[in-house]
Amino acid sequence: MISPTRLLHPIRRILGVTVATLGLAAGAHAGNDQPLALVEFASFDCPHCQAMDKHHSSIQAAVEAAGLEYRYAPLPSHTGLERAWRERAFYASRSIPGVANDVRKAFITAGETGVPLKDYDDVLAHLQLHVPQVRWNEFADDHISDPSSVEAIERAARLAGRAGLREYPAFVAVSRSEVKLLSLSGDVAERAEAVIKYLENL
Q1: Are strands 19-21 and 24-26 parallel, antiparallel or unpaired?
Q2: Separation between Cα atoms, residue 139 and residue 19, nearest integer Å
Q3: Angle at the Cα of 103 (from 127 to 8), degrees rounded to 5?
Q4: Is 183 helix (H, G, I), strand (E, B) or coil?
Q5: pLDDT, tens digit, for every residue of 87-98?
Q6: Is 44 within 8 Å of 86 (Cβ atoms)?
């Protein structure tokens, strides 16, 4: 499992009592403490995260059956935020309806097959090949290169820090008053099954 500790150490300094991230608020008080969303933290380079992707549709179906929102939150493991072009592209792609899942799959596949996507131009070329319905060169200037794509990673990293994330992949249940890291053990298939059972028991 890949540890995101290097990324989270500098970001933990800016953690507040309330963490607003991924369109959700954590830290507010509410009478109903039921989870509102399940957040999956991952790295595109992590073999365990790539293996967990095989269970993505089953987990997403369980999330929907439980009436929760699902968020995929990739964090960079080998580069600083400014040069985290894959992650920046993923977060930016969420502004295009129906595209983020294709972008996620394209980057997971690149990680599995060892395709190096370190540079901005490499990322755009990969997306143009695997997600051709978007004109990535036009989209990139206004969205991927925009500082808001770095801010999206920072928000995800703050939530990961709040949850006490130590390794990838990890699943966090977010309610109005709590950010809860699910305690999982075993191999990837066992962890996926544990997440599904957690959702079924809500």
Answers
A1: antiparallel
A2: 29
A3: 110
A4: coil
A5: 999 999 999 999
A6: yes
The pLDDT tens digits of the residues spanning 36-53 come to 999 999 999 999 999 999
**From the candidate CATH numbers 3.40.50.2020, 3.40.630.30, 2.170.150.40, 3.40.30.10, the one assigned to the domain spanning 5-190:** 3.40.30.10
Instruction: Give pLDDT, residue 77.
Output: 82
The residue extents of the domains of the chain are 5-190
Q: How far apart are CA 202 and CA 185, in angstroms?
A: 20
Crossing angle for the helix pair 56-65 and 188-200, nearest 10 degrees? 10
Structure tokens at 63: 């999330």
Angle between helices 147-163 and 5-12 (to 10 degrees): 90
| Rounded CA separation 102/91 (Å) | 12
The DSSP bridge pattern shows strands 37-42 and 69-74 to be parallel
In angstroms, the CA 139 to CA 171 distance is 30
Residue 42 tokens, joined: 């991952």
